[in-house]
Design a protein that fits this description.
60% helix, alpha+beta, LptG/LptF_permease, 361 residues
Length: 361
């Protein structure tokens, strides 16, 4: 039985690898065709190829559930076409044993995908983002451009840019009046500060340079300037960096840390929570789709052609991905936990796969 298990597992694994290579190849070609129009003197074809290659690890981790579905359909479908599955069933091998053998390589690659999502893809994706941000600049000094808004210690902070050394440029701090006993017309703004640059000293301490402070009183406005001032704020270089990145480019640990920071500042962290659960539940989603594929191979796709199996796998994969996006985004819009939104399509696939496999067995 162990030899048969290895044979089934190797068939599914090879089919999974072939599907992954095809999906990544198609993604590479389509992205290259779409992005070629951005090539200029500063953003060369070599830079474009670097960006696409850097993003391939993240794409691989993202495609694992769909590749697992199509790979299982192809691997087991090939065995069904040569009547090998029929012989295994005739020899007394139950469907659940065949499914267990098919799930083993998928579980292994799913765990490897988690490792890629945590340690490889974020670094590669962030390097790709830096190359893209440098394309309109003569030098690669800036790692964050276009401005970012943050909330820290109940103040609202705008940062125009930051370089790779951690220096901030164009900082504006808006502090609302926190006095609850103040009249309604005096609760708008207490003071503003602006600084040309800022450097991180240690912990929560920053040094502001060329500072202009404006204080708002009931009967007057006062403005003064200083060469430098100390700024104690909960913003750390790491939080600043994470705020400038797309949620899809962050690792699980980064998503969790920045989610905790946003919740501490009483800000909406639902987008980061949603991305966290989509990534964390990817192995479960892969196994759920393998069960669906298993029930299809022993059911309506038993005598189907390879092209028919691939087409069916693509349709099921697209439907699952769209359902995952739909329920996930709906959870953010409606306000219920993203974990529930992400879990709904996965649970539906798991239940459907289990019920169908039991009927076939």
């Amino acid at each position: 039985m162990k030899k048969i298990d290895k044979y089934i597992a190797s068939s599914v694994l090879w089919a999974f690898l072939i599907v992954s290579v095809v999906l990544l190849g198609l993604d590479f070609a389509l992205t290259f065709i779409e992005q070629i129009k951005k090539v200029n003197d500063n953003y060369t074809i070599q830079s474009l190829l670097q960006v696409i290659l850097y993003r391939l690890p993240g794409k691989l981790a993202e495609y694992i559930p769909i590749a697992a579905l199509i790979g299982t359909l192809m691997g087991l479908g090939t065995l069904a076409a040569t009547s090998e599955l029929t012989v295994m069933r005739a020899a007394g091998m139950p469907i659940w044993r065949i499914g267990l053998a098919a799930c083993q390589p998928i579980l292994l690659v799913s765990l490897m995908g988690m490792g890629i999502s945590e340690f490889v893809a974020p670094i590669a994706e962030q390097r790709a983002n830096l190359i893209e941000k440098f394309k309109d600049q003569k030098s690669g000094a800036f790692s964050l451009t276009g401005g970012v808004w943050l909330k820290a210690n109940n103040d609202f902070v705008y940062i125009d840019a930051a370089d790779s050394n951690g220096t901030l440029y164009g900082i504006k701090i808006f502090s609302p009046n926190k006095d609850e006993s103040a009249p309604q017309d005096q609760k708008q703004l207490k003071y503003t500060k602006s600084a040309t640059t800022a450097q991180h000293i240690e912990g929560s301490t920053w040094q502001l340079n060329e500072v202009t402070e404006t204080y708002f009183f009931p009967d007057r406005i006062e403005t003064n300037s200083t060469a430098s001032a100390e700024w104690n704020v909960s913003i750390t270089p790491e939080n600043l960096f994470l705020s400038s990145q797309e949620t899809e480019t962050l690792s699980l640990s980064q998503l969790l840390r920045y989610q905790t920071y946003l919740q501490k500042e009483e800000l909406d962290a639902s987008q980061y929570e949603l991305e966290f659960w989509i990534t964390a539940l990817r192995p479960v989603a892969s196994l759920a789709l393998v069960l669906v594929a298993l029930s299809s191979v022993f059911g309506p796709l038993r005598s189907s052609t390879m092209g028919g199996r691939i087409f069916t796998g693509v349709i099921i994969g697209l439907a699952f991905q769209n359902a995952l996006n739909l329920f996930g985004r709906m959870s953010v819009a409606v306000g219920f936990p993203p974990l529930i939104g992400v879990s709904i399509p996965i649970i539906i696939c798991l239940l459907a796969g289990i019920i169908l496999v039991r009927r076939r067995g």
